[in-house]
Amino acid sequence: MSEEDGEYPEFTAPAPTEESDGPNVGVILAAVSGLLVVVGFYFGFTSLQAMGDGLVAADMDAQQGQLMLGYLLITGGIFLAALLSLGGVIRGFFSSD
After folding, report:
1. If you average pLDDT over every residue of the chain, what do you get?
2. Do 73 and 43 contact (CB within 8 A), yes or no?
3. For residue 75, what pLDDT is reported?
4. Residue 3, CA distances (Å) to 7, 8, 13 in order
5. Which is nearest to 70 in space by CA: 36, 26, 24?
6. Confidence band, pLDDT 50/70/90 cuts, at residue 97
7. Contact yes or no for 78/87 (Cβ under 8 A)
8. Core-most of 14, 30, 37, 76, by most CB within 10 Å?
9. Residue 54: left if φ>0, alpha if ψ -120 to 50, beta else—which one?
C-alpha cells in the first residue's frame, strides 16, 4: 500500500452520534447571552440619550440606575458567551481521559 502503486488506505469515517430529540441547551444559552447583550445595549443607549438631552436632578438617579443595569446585562451576556465558547476547553481540562 504505497502511493507509488496507486493504492491508498480505505477511509473510514467515525460512527455517527445519536441526536437527541430534546432542546439543545448550548444553543438556548447562546441565544440568551446574545439577547442579554442586545437588551443591555438598549437600556444603556436609551439612558445615555436621555442624559444627553439634559435632566433634572430627580431623573438623573433613575437614568444612572438604568445605565448601570444596561452595563450589568452586557457584562453578563459577554461572560455567559465566553463560558459557552470555552466550555469544550474546560471540559477537556477536567476530564480524566
Report:
1. 83
2. yes
3. 96
4. 6, 6, 21
5. 36
6. low
7. no
8. 37
9. left
Per-residue confidence (pLDDT) for residue 28, from 0 to 100: 87
**Cα–Cα distance measured from residue 27 to residue 64, given in angstroms and rounded to the nearest whole number:** 33
Q: Return the HEC string of the chain.
A: CCHHHCCCCCCCCCCCCCCCCCCCHHHHHHHHHHHHHHHHHHHHHHHHHHHHCCCCHHHHHHHHHHHHHHHHHHHHHHHHHHHHHCHHHHHHHHCCC
What is the total residue count of the chain? 97
> Model confidence over 60-86: pLDDT tens digits?
888 889 999 999 999 999 999 998 888
Kindly report the pTM of this predicted structure. Answer: 0.67
Q: Rounded CA gap, 53 and 45, in Å?
A: 13
